[in-house]
C-alpha cells in the first residue's frame, strides 16, 4: 500500500439488546427491530449494520472529512475494507484524519448500539516513528501494532520466502497432532484424519503464497510419521515409499495429496481469476502479493504448457486479449508462433483492438513496428500473420476466456490437481482395487500385502532388523514371507480349505498373495457378484483376521518363552 498508515478494528455487540435504528429524513423516524437468537433474519443483521458503517465512511470521504488513499498504477480509491467482523480503515497519516475516523465510529455507535472494542483494535503505520504512532493511538484510545500483522488468519506484510514466517502453519500441525490421541487410532483412522484434517490446514496459506520446499518437506514428514507411527514420541519403519502413498486410490495409492500439487493448483486459481474477473476490486488493485502471484503462476507448467497457453481467449471487442502474448487463435500465442515479427513490435502488451482497426472495417491492421520487415523470415512471418487474422471480426461483446485442459468446460482446482497428477507419468504399483464395503484398515493391509510390505520376518531381516529366527511361527518349516504366510503355510491351507467347505465354493489355489485378491474372477458367480466385489471384500476381511491371528500367536509365543526363561 502507498499510504503511511491504516487503522484496524474488530467490532462486538454491547450488552444491551440488539437494536437497529434507521433515520428517515428530517423527522428521524426510527425503525426498531428486536431480533432474538435463532431468528431467520439474524445472519443478515450484521451485514445490514456493516453496510451502514460503510456508508458513513463513504459519505465522510465524499465530504473530504477523511483522506483516502489511491492504489498504485492509477488504481481505485480505498478508504475501508470490511469482512465479517473485521474492518480495515485506511488513510493518510494525519491527526485530523485519525480524529475524524474516531468520530465516525462514535456516530456509528450512537446509531446502531455497536461499539468498537478498543482492546482488540490496533493502529499500524508505515514509515512513521514509534513516538508518533503512540501519540496518534492515544487520539483513538487503541493499541499500537507492527508490520507484519495477522488479518483474517493470514500473515500480511511478511517475507514468505523465509521459513520462520511459516511457523503458524507448523504450529497448527503440531497442535492438531498433539490433541488427537493417535495411539488409540488404527491406521485407517489415521489415513482418514490426514485426508480430512491435515491436508486442509495449510490451504489458506497455500492459496496466497508459494510454499517453500523446506516447509513442504517438513509438513509431509509430519504426515508420514503420523501415518506409520501415530505419534512423535516413537520412531518406526515407513513400510511404503511416500511417492507411492501419495497416488490416488484409483491409481493404486492411498489417496494422500502432495502438498506441492495442492499449492500449485490453488495458485492457478488466481491466474484464471485474473483473466476472468477484470472488474473485481482485487484485480484493479494489481500490486503487492497479487502481482507476485500472477507472475509466479505464469512461470508454472501445466501439462507441459504455460498459463498463457492453457487459457484461451475468445475475441469479442478485443479490449482484454493481448495480441501477441495471449493464446486466442490456434494453440500458440503469436509471440511464439512468429518470434521474429514479435521482436519488431514496439508495444508488446498491445491488445487485439489496438492492432485490428475496426474503425476502418474489419481486416485493416494498425501495425506499430520498430521498422518494416526486411529479411525473408520476417517477411514470411508478416504475411502469415496477416493471413491468419484476416478473417477476425470484432464485435461489441466483451472478450471471454476458455480453460483449455483435458476438454474441461470451466476452471476448477480439482481439474488442475488431476492434470498435475497426470503429469507425474505412470507409476509402478501393482493392480489393486479398493473395496468400499470393508473397513479401511483391511484395505490398507491388503494393499501393503500386494506390495510385499507387511511386517513378515523375511521383510524385517531385509531391513536389517535383528530377529532370532525367521521361520514361520505356525508351521516352523519355511521362512516367513508374505506369500508363505497367507498361501503356502500348512495352517493357512487348512484355513482356506475349511472356508471352501463352509461356503460351498470351489477350492482356492493361491500361490501368491495377489492370487487371493483375484479369486472371485475364477469362480462361476454372477456378473453382479463379481462387479460388486462381494467375495473380494470377504477375503480381505479373512486375510486381515489371519494377519491379526499371526500377530497374537507370535506375542503368545514370546510371552511363553520369557516365562520359561524367568523360571
TrEMBL record:
It holds the Pfam family zf-RVT. Keywords: Nucleotidyltransferase, RNA-directed DNA polymerase, Transferase. It comes from the Eukaryota. The keyword Transferase applies. Residues 1-156 form the Reverse transcriptase domain. One of its GO terms (molecular function) is RNA-directed DNA polymerase activity. This is Putative reverse transcriptase domain, Reverse transcriptase zinc-binding domain protein.
Amino acid at each position: 500500500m502507498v499510504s503511511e498508515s491504516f487503522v484496524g478494528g474488530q467490532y462486538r455487540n454491547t450488552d444491551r439488546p440488539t437494536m437497529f435504528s434507521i433515520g428517515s429524513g428530517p423527522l428521524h423516524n426510527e425503525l426498531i427491530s428486536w431480533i432474538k437468537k435463532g431468528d431467520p433474519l439474524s445472519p443478515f443483521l450484521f451485514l445490514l449494520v456493516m453496510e451502514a458503517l460503510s456508508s458513513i465512511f463513504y459519505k465522510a470521504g465524499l465530504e473530504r472529512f477523511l483522506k483516502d488513499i489511491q492504489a498504485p498504477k492509477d488504481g481505485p480509491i480505498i478508504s475501508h475494507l470490511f469482512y465479517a467482523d473485521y474492518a480495515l480503515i485506511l488513510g493518510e497519516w494525519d491527526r485530523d484524519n485519525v480524529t475524524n475516523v474516531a468520530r465516525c465510529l462514535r456516530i456509528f455507535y450512537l446509531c446502531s448500539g455497536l461499539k468498537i472494542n478498543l482492546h482488540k483494535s490496533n493502529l499500524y503505520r508505515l514509515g512513521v516513528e514509534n513516538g508518533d504512532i503512540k501519540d496518534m493511538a492515544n487520539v483513538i484510545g487503541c493499541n499500537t501494532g507492527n508490520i507484519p500483522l495477522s488479518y483474517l488468519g493470514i500473515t500480511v506484510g511478511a517475507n514468505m520466502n523465509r521459513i520462520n514466517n511459516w511457523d503458524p502453519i507448523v504450529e497448527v500441525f503440531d497442535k492438531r497432532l498433539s490433541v488427537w490421541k493417535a495411539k488409540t487410532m488404527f491406521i485407517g483412522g489415521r489415513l482418514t484424519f490426514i485426508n480430512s484434517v491435515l491436508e486442509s490446514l495449510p490451504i489458506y496459506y497455500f492459496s496466497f503464497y508459494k510454499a517453500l520446499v523446506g516447509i513442504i518437506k517438513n509438513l509431509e514428514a509430519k504426515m508420514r510419521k503420523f501415518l506409520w507411527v501415530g505419534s512423535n514420541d516413537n520412531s518406526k519403519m515407513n513400510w511404503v515409499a511416500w511417492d507411492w502413498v501419495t497416488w490416488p486410490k484409483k491409481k493404486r495409492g492411498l489417496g494422500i495429496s502432495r502438498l506441492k500439487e495442492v499449492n500449485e493448483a490453488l495458485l492457478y486459481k488466481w491466474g484464471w481469476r485474473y483473466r476472468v474477473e477484470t472488474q473485481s476490486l482485487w484485480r484493479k488493485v494489481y500490486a503487492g502479493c497479487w502481482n507476485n502471484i500472477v507472475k509466479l503462476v505464469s512461470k508454472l507448467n501445466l501439462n507441459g504448457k504455460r498459463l498463457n497457453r492453457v487459457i484461451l481467449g475468445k475475441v469479442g471487442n478485443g479490449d482484454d486479449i493481448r495480441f501477441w502474448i495471449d493464446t486466442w487463435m490456434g494453440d500458440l500465442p503469436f509471440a511464439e508462433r512468429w518470434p521474429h515479427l514479435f521482436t519488431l513490435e514496439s508495444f508488446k502488451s498491445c491488445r487485439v483492438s489496438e492492432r485490428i482497426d475496426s474503425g476502418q472495417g474489419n481486416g485493416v491492421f494498425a501495425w506499430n513496428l520498430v521498422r518494416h520487415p526486411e529479411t525473408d523470415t520476417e517477411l514470411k512471418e508478416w504475411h502469415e500473420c496477416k493471413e491468419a487474422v484476416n478473417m477476425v471480426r470484432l464485435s461489441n461483446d466483451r472478450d471471454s476466456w476458455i480453460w483449455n485442459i483435458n476438454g474441461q468446460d470451466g476452471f476448477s482446482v480439482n481439474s488442475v490437481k488431476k492434470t498435475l497428477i497426470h503429469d507425474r507419468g505412470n507409476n509402478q504399483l501393482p493392480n489393486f482395487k479398493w473395496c468400499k464395503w470393508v473397513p479401511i484398515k483391511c484395505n490398507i493391509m491388503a494393499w501393503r500385502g500386494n506390495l510385499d510390505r507387511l511386517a513378515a520376518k523375511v521383510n524385517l531381516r531385509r531391513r536389517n532388523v535383528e530377529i532370532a529366527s525367521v521361520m514361520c511361527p505356525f508351521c516352523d518349516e519355511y521362512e516367513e514371507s508374505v506369500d508363505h504366510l497367507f498361501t503356502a503355510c500348512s495352517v493357512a491351507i487348512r484355513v482356506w480349505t475349511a472356508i471352501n467347505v463352509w461356503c460351498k465354493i470351489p477350492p482356492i489355489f493361491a500361490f501368491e498373495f495377489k492370487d487371493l485378491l483375484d479369486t472371485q474372477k475364477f469362480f462361476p458367480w454372477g456378473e453382479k457378484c463379481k462387479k460388486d466385489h462381494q467375495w473380494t471384500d470377504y477375503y480381505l476381511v479373512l486375510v486381515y483376521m489371519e494377519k491379526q491371528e499371526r500377530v497374537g500367536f507370535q506375542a503368545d509365543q514370546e510371552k511363553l518363552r520369557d516365562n520359561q526363561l524367568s523360571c
